[in-house]
Design goal:
The protein contains eight helices and four strands; from the N terminus they run E-H-E-H-E-E-H-H-H-H-H-H. It is α+β, with helices and mostly antiparallel strands. The chain has two domains: 98 residues, Glutaredoxin (3-Layer(aba) Sandwich), CATH 3.40.30.10; 106 residues, Glutathione S-transferase Yfyf (Class Pi), Chain A, domain 2. The two termini are 30 Å apart.
């Protein structure tokens, strides 16, 4: 049965690759698995049919045979475990790749999302500038730690893995903030990820939806 994922009918970012379905598309492209996309509107996301797939009314979701999943990390991990190409064969290296995947969404991404919300939703608050400065400092701490760990390596732990896919996806959210540019090692790391043919295919597929007339 063909894999089916859901995506925004119109992505809030206009197709810049920041919507979380891009991560799922990228994973599927890396492992060369065909998939279909069912586009959903913001209204449809809150209706019973979609809530049966995603109880929080978000995207993406993943359907294959009798399996239905929500949460991007869970979906990407399922893809990586089911198809060769994103997880090492060695058990210890495999565990480390998964650890980096969790680090991306549990340690690095939360303050980045906090910054996005502060900038977009709290612009009229008198304490906005002070709050943004504090969040940026927390992000810089994480980026310093990550940059030190990456060092001169191309990827986080040997060959490109699901950990790099998730980490690069998270770091992409920082591009407009200028914070990524403060860390040349990480900027180059993200550029390497974006240069992968699988990422380009995933990005172009999402962009095409958002630019179609």
């Amino acid at each position: 049965m063909t894999i089916t994922i859901t995506a925004f009918e119109r992505s809030p970012d206009g197709g810049k690759g920041l919507a979380r379905d891009t991560r799922v598309r990228w994973a599927l492209e890396e492992v060369r698995q065909p998939y279909e996309v069912r586009l959903v509107s913001f209204r449809a996301m809150k209706e019973p049919a979609h809530l049966a797939l995603h109880p929080f009314g978000q995207i993406p979701t993943y359907e294959e045979d009798d399996l239905a999943l929500f949460e991007t990390g869970a979906i990407v991990l399922q893809i990586a475990e089911r198809h060769a190409g994103l997880l090492p064969r060695n058990a210890d290296a495999r565990a480390r790749a998964i650890a980096w995947m969790f680090a991306a969404v549990n340690t690095v991404e939360p303050p980045i999302l906090e910054l996005v919300n502060a900038v977009l939703l709290e612009g009229d608050k008198p304490w906005r500038d002070e709050r943004v400065a504090l969040i940026k400092d927390r992000i810089r701490t994480r980026l310093n730690q990550l940059s030190a760990r990456l060092g001169n390596a191309d990827w986080l732990d040997g060959a490109f893995s699901v950990g790099d896919l998730m980490m690069a996806s998270v770091l992409l959210r920082l591009r407009t903030s200028g914070l990524l540019g403060e860390h040349p090692t990480l900027a180059a790391y993200v550029a390497r990820a974006e240069a992968r043919p699988a990422y380009k295919r995933a990005f172009d597929a999402q962009l095409a939806i958002n630019t179609a007339r």
